Amino acid sequence: MTTHPSQTTRRCASPGPPVDVREWRTCRLLEAGFPRELATSLAAGHVDLHALLELVDAGCPPELAARILSPLDEPVGPR
């Protein structure tokens, strides 16, 4: 019998010591469907990761979720 990983398997979970926070945030955003450049930019910023993921889980496109939650004084997207 062959078993396949479920969709709930988290690739960003690390069994060992904590990984770099930016790498983990980037990984979680990529898993949620964010384009790489946007995920990298958001992971380095001051945007609430959990709020981003909640919006996407509710059906909001990643780019729109980023615009909604981005601080007004910071540009959204790659720099």
Can you lay out the helices and strands and say which pair or pack?
Blueprint: H1 21-31, H2 36-44, H3 49-57, H4 62-69
Helix pairs in contact: 1-2, 3-4
Q: What can be said about this structure in brief?
A:
47% of the residues lie in helices and 0% in strands.
The number of helices is 4
What are the low-pLDDT stretches, counting only 5+ consecutive residues below 50? 1-9
Largest sheet: none
How much is the average pLDDT? 82
How many whole angstroms does the radius of gyration measure?
Answer: 14 Å
**Beta-strand fraction estimate:** under 5%
What structural class do you assign from the helix and strand content? mainly alpha
* Counted beta strands: 0
Run of helices and strands: HHHH
End-to-end CA span: 48 Å
Helicity range: 40-55%
Q: What's the assembly state of these chains?
A: single chain
Structure in words:
- By secondary structure, the protein is mainly alpha-helical.
- 47% of the residues lie in helices and 0% in strands.
- The protein has a domain at 21-69.
- The chain starts with 20 loop residues before the first helix and ends in a 10-residue tail after the last helix.
Features of the shown structure:
single chain; 79 residues; mainly alpha; 0% strand; disordered N terminus
